[in-house]
Design goal:
677 residues; globular; mainly beta; 40 strands; Maltoporin, Chain A; 6% helix; 22-stranded antiparallel barrel; 5-stranded mixed sheet; disordered N terminus
Length: 677
């Protein structure tokens, strides 16, 4: 406790320094953000804790993957199972195991979360295709619906500008890592284009930890008329990767196994994902604009799991998604005061088929499961400025979802079943933002968010055991989760010398969904509560040198019920980041970063009876040389070779905690050159 208090004091001290000395710098208050309201607006006018990370920011910091972008972000933690973005989890404000279902990922406003428990595959978004990343903390369900109870991450992809430019790059490093990219971009009159091809190969840190991926992406925009634009995005992703499995913590400590060992040396999977996304935008005179977006996505994902002694599971899932998202934005004064109004409708149809076959001590299995989910949602949002320095915002969403599940068992027909169920929820948000001159703002908000069960959570698998058969069922008792959250915050910059932000929040959840490993079913917690603070400060003692400090504290607990007031698993209370950057000759940047994360309980240890996953501190260093056409990066991850794990699971049957070890010291070198432009 003394350590936490000391850290908190240091952070607040620096925050005070920044706010007393502290327009520009790492916190660019005039940057445009679109996530906060589905209406473009300056960051300084947003009424919640939003971060904008530009391409310039993450390249200067030496980020190699999308996951690296989140290292310094307060209130954001990552859990990287495979040591690559494939199965990495991003947690906002302490949701732990269920973070993948409570944090919504968007690509240019298009939802990319899966309707099952497979999570969001962040490896399908090459970092070289990203223009900027917007991180929205707190419920965003009014604007984006399901999965946004904890927050949202909007990834803005690059667009073509200027003359034809061709960029080629190659990266290599530890564990036989090799990544090559080739892109073209530009604009000719009303036509803009950006296209990227990339290939990645790596053996991975552990045995059976390989990854092999290929990506093709294109972003095209056509100005048909002066007031009419059509944008088309399309992408193809294909990969294969190993699944090394968890290692028990007691065996790691005794030295009977090595961190690089694999408990599942034959498990593997692959993915093929294709999408096309179109959007038509039309201006409505001088008062606003109308748009309609449509997209289609298909994901094929076979996987293979081998358990020894003739036991195995082979599955093949095929997911198709169709989306239609019309909206109208009206920018017209009300009573002579600035106002922005958005009204829209979101339609998503998900259709998935899972074919599974295998063999176990219960005998052979062969099943087909078809699931169709349809979402319809209506939303409105209004921003009103009663005074030039005061903004009031309110929004509302009504969201309905329908599940149609059909399960067939070819070996035990008695287990065949089907079900149809509906759920609907409302979300709303009220917020205020008061500008302090041109360089700061005080903001506050109250929001209600929700998340519906994913399809895997609804289905209770059937079984036959010694002549007794229990058919596959739909867990109709499983309720949607509701999140109510209050935020209060301050952001301020001054003279490009110092600046910062601080936000305090409290989130109360009803019916939070979790998996009970004893009952083999998903359940609803009685209540959970999260209270925290997020602080980010920068200080420039002299022009080439920059110090950035971020700190967050979150206390995530069960608020009564069978688990009393225990801690929610996989939620570290404290995260502290310190980054030192020095730029010489306006081209050469040296970075040294330290990130500390405190200990936490493993997944499924709601009773808090097992030893915590140890906290850790990692150090990263990078050197970046950037000119208008050339960039080279040399980076060292985990400079001291620290042995640690971001992710751990408690097995009640083995009564052990399994860990997914993170890599020790790694080296990377990247070179990139642009032709033309």
């Amino acid at each position: 406790m003394k350590k936490v208090s000391f850290i908190f004091f240091i952070v607040i001290f620096f925050a005070g320094l920044g706010l007393s000395m502290a327009q520009e710098g790492p916190f660019r208050l005039q940057d445009i953000v679109v996530t906060a309201s589905r209406i473009q607006m300056p960051l300084i006018e947003t009424s919640t804790n939003v971060t904008i990370i530009s391409e310039e920011d993450f390249k200067a910091a030496g980020a190699r993957t999308l996951i690296d972008i989140f290292d310094m972000e307060p209130g954001v933690t990552t859990s990287n199972l495979l040591n690559n973005p494939k199965r990495a989890q991003v947690d906002i404000r302490g949701y732990g195991e269920t973070a993948p279902q409570n944090v919504l990922f968007l690509v240019d406003g298009r939802r990319v979360n899966s309707i099952d428990l497979s999570g969001t595959d962040l490896s399908q978004i090459p970092i070289d295709a990203i223009e900027r990343v917007e991180i929205y903390r707190g419920p965003a369900s009014v604007l984006f619906g399901d999965n946004a109870a904890a927050g949202a991450v909007n990834i803005i992809l690059k667009k073509g500008e200027g003359k034809l430019k061709t960029t080629a790059g190659v990266s290599g490093g530890s564990d036989k890592y090799l990544n090559s990219q080739l892109s073209i971009s530009g604009r000719e009159g009303g036509f803009s284009y950006f296209a990227l091809m990339s290939a990645l190969n790596s053996d991975g840190y552990r045995h059976n930890n390989y990854s092999d991926a290929r990506d093709i992406f294109g972003n095209f925009s056509f100005d048909i008329l002066q007031n009419l634009n059509i944008a088309v995005k399309a992408g193809h992703h294909k990969d294969k990767y190993g699944l090394p499995g968890a290692l028990y913590i007691n065996e790691l400590r005794s030295g009977s196994v090595d961190q690089k060992d694999s408990t599942h040396p034959f498990d593997h999977a692959r993915t093929e994902d294709n999408f096309i996304d179109t959007e038509v935008n039309a201006k409505i005179g001088n008062v606003g604009q109308a748009s309609i977006g449509g997209s289609f996505r298909n994901r094929l994902q076979p996987s293979y799991f081998f358990y020894g002694s003739g036991s195995f599971t082979e599955s093949r899932s095929n997911l198709s998604t169709i989306a239609l998202t019309p909206k109208i934005i009206i920018d017209k004064p009300i009573f002579g005061r600035k106002s922005s109004f958005v009204i829209g409708w979101d339609y998503y149809n998900y259709s998935t088929t899972v074919k599974a076959a295998g063999n176990s001590f219960l005998g052979p299995s062969n099943t087909d499961t078809d699931v169709e989910r349809t979402d319809n949602a209506f939303y409105i949002n209004e921003r009103f400025y009663p005074f030039s320095n005061l903004m009031i915002e309110g929004g509302y969403r009504r969201h309905k979802t329908r599940y149609d599940i059909d399960h067939r068992d070819m070996i035990n027909p008695v287990l065949t079943s089907s079900a149809l169920t509906h759920q609907d929820k409302e979300a709303y948000r009220f917020s205020i933002n008061y500008l302090i001159g041109k360089n700061g703002a005080i903001f506050g908000s109250y929001g209600r968010g929700f998340r519906f069960p994913v399809t895997d959570e609804f289905v209770i698998p059937g079984y036959c055991f010694f002549g007794y058969c229990q058919p596959t069922q739909v867990n109709s008792a499983l309720k949607p989760q509701i999140t109510d959250e209050i935020d209060i915050g301050l952001r301020y910059n001054l003279l490009n010398t110092a600046g910062g932000s601080v936000t305090v929040f409290q989130a109360k959840n009803k019916n939070e969904i979790y998996y009970d490993p004893i009952l083999f079913a998903n359940m609803n917690y009685d209540r959970t509560k999260r209270t925290g603070i997020e602080t980010a400060v920068f200080y420039r003692p002299f022009d080439p040198f920059l110090v950035t400090v971020t700190y967050s504290y979150v206390k995530a607990i069960f608020d009564g019920g069978v688990f009393g007031r225990n801690d929610v698993p996989l939620v570290p209370n404290n995260k502290l980041g310190v980054k030192l950057s020095y730029t010489a000759l306006d081209k050469l940047t040296f970075n040294l970063m330290a990130v500390t994360r405190s200990n936490c309980f493993a997944i499924s240890d709601q009773k808090n009876q097992q030893s915590k996953l140890p906290g850790y501190t990692t150090y990263d260093a990078s050197v970046v040389w950037r000119t208008e056409k050339f960039m080279t990066l040399f980076a060292i991850k985990n400079l001291t070779g620290k042995r640690y794990s971001e992710y751990g699971v408690y097995s009640s049957f083995a009564n052990k905690v399994g860990l997914y070890p993170s890599p020790e010291r790694q080296f990377f070198l990247s070179i990139q050159y642009a032709f033309g432009g």
